[in-house]
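RECORD TYPE: protein structure
NAME: Methyltransferase
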Amino acid sequence: MKPAFRRGPATLYNADCIEWLQARRKQSVHAVVTDPPYGLVEYNEIEKAKLRTGKGGVWRIPPSYDGHTRSPLPRFTTLTERDLTNLDRFFGDWATALLPVLVPGAHVLVAANPLVSHRISVAMDSAGLERRGEIVRLVQTMRGGDRPKNAHEEFADITVMPRSQWEPWLLFRKPLEPKVTVADNLRKYGTGALRRTSADQPFGDVIKSHPTRPDEKRLAGHPSLKPQSFLRTVVRAMLPLGHGVVLDPFAGSGSTLAAATAVGYDSIGVELDPQYVEIARQAVPALAQYKTKSDPQVIP
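PREDICTED:
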């Protein structure tokens, strides 16, 4: 497949990620950092069209609240049993296609949501990836915390769901070859471990973050855009020796590729939606040059 474009060390393909993975050379990717469609339904063509016209559908288009404009959020409580079964199947198929492309010891970091993360985790584990815990992104959002709809006054002391204050990022690793130590794997493939935050501080599994700021959102129009400060922190950790290829198979507007560029890594993205590919064409270099206001705090 020919890439849609290249921007420095970043390459983006406009393709179905499973088809792309099936055609990709084996053992050619050293890490994965990706923010996939959590429930799959929210990024089908019908729901994306509703999102882009502000009509909602599975996307909750909330009004302004306390002077803040609330971003659209997918309502995973609306998922049917069929939707959940499709989610299980998709992530199992995706992980199965991904495994041969990874070198042994390659880490896979997948953004999730507390309502569906357990199903994604089971599907990926069943496909043969080794669960290595998860990264907790501490972030205060406007999700949850609402009183019952159309009954705010009647149930003034009630919260239907907790106000979201964290986001799970599932961490997996391709198993090492038999009888191979992490040290041996690092020498052979450059993978199997995580890069320390500093000589004195290991990479921790809790990271204090913040919602993506408006000036950053203006560089890349995607409803699930994560801040560069967070992405650069986790992308940097995925290549323990600082070299290799980072893959984002659900690249969106290219934020992971931009983060990889910012920390000096080679990266590849795959994105199915041609509109997001065109956004990424300009967004990748713009986000890579974005000056973060503060680095997130990695708690060792």
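COMMENT: Residues 216 and 287 are 7 Å apart (CA to CA).
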